[in-house]
Request: fold
Amino acid sequence: NAGVTQTPKFRILKIGQSMTLQCAQDMNHNYMYWYRQDPGMGLKLIYYSVGAGITDKGEVPNGYNVSRSTTEDFPLRLELAAPSQTSVYFCASRSTGGEATTGELFFGEGSRLTVL
Amino acid sequence: AQSVTQLDSQVPVFEEAPVELRCNYSSSVSVYLFWYVQYPNQGLQLLLKYLSGSTLVKGINGFEAEFNKSQTSFHLRKPSVHISDTAEYFCAVGLINAGKSTFGDGTTLTVKP
Reply:
């Protein structure tokens, strides 16, 4: 299994440009998440989804949008990039329901975004 | 709502010394507790977790943690660290069948020769 796959790994954007960070998981997990990690600030939740067609805001959603048309994919869109969005972005997923649920998050390797 | 406080932002330690990384949490309901490790330029991976039962849980790479309900703590320990343990460590709480997990700000463990 590939687990959680994020693309691209690195990207440089100019202020005002738009882009989409891709995230795919092959574990049939219902829950998926986008976090950003800034130095010394831990992980902040941007958006999350509890299943296809259902998304909700996290702590820091401003400047981002998400969609969840399939169980496998959860792309994150930046519409008008700003220097404050320079960060490392992590996608994660977890299973839900039943005794097999442990609440453990499975993370991708991250996408490092720089906005200049 | 839940919150997580990692009491030390940086912990320097010499190789083969013991280490403890401290984590306190707050929650009005029962939670699951986790420690994740992040090696440089990598994603997070699970180190260990507490779901129920024995309050002492063992994880990968010789780490263990003890759940203390009265003190709402979940401190991570290792009796003898290696250079390869140098990494960022995150404490987290989660609710079963609930959407969000809450992470602490992380503790940077630096193991020196």
